[in-house]
Amino acid sequence: ENIVLKIKSIENVQSSVTFPNEDAVANTSFSPMSGTITIPVEYLQEVAQGESVLVANLLLTNLLPPTISGINNTQGASVIVSSQVFGQGKDSGMEVLEQNPVMLSFTFEEVENTTLDEYLCVFWNYSSMDESTGMWSEDGLSTGYSSADSGYVTVHCNSMHLTAFHVLAAPNIQHIPNAPGLYFISYIGCGFSIACLLFAIIFFLLYGKGLLSSVNFFVHLNLAISLCLAYLVFSIGVETAKGHEIVCAFVVAAIQYLFLAAFSWMLCEGIMLYLLLVVVFSSLSKKW
Q: With a threshold of 0.85, does the pTM exceed it?
């Protein structure tokens, strides 16, 4: 009554596959609208590669903990729908989903004290770094729109991959608007800073003799190198480290170290300015 499993072999793919239908949920606790998934025909044809394709669908009640990284007080709202497709071109078929996503729809009882924009489409990420057994994640999914009618809520989602899908209710969630402009401003600012720092480093190196006799040049050069490397690691490493635990750990450690080094050289700058401007005639300034 609480689990519906359907495995189907399709010889000649001509249309999309939608699960479940009324026959599949007959004599169960589910309705055809509890949770549905539609796999696009373009993806099925790409996976089939002219051969047959095997589609496995699963519908079950929520048995997994409602945990998701970065959001507290979440609770499961819908059933779980899972789907997998097997064929000759399974690996290459994932690129097709970027243009023709999987469509999902969930209908469930309204969760108390939860508005329509506080429902999240999620999938079970087995490789999550936060939990050994995995946890829910929003990566690769988008919540299209939600509607409410007579105490029931319908949530529509799009996905660029196939796995186990679910809807979480997150009351009082703080939504961060999607602002692609901030993304470009950050990288433009980092690029401009790197260019200026490289110019400063080249300028100081051209006066190599002065580095041996002047503490000022030495401190300025090391500060510029630390900041330049930190911005480079940030610009290149943030996007590269996504989904790679070891790379992510290396990028975080490098950024922490480089900015700590920069702050240390800033401290040296402050001490140097204090000795040069305040303690001008002290013996400490000569030792420095």
A: no
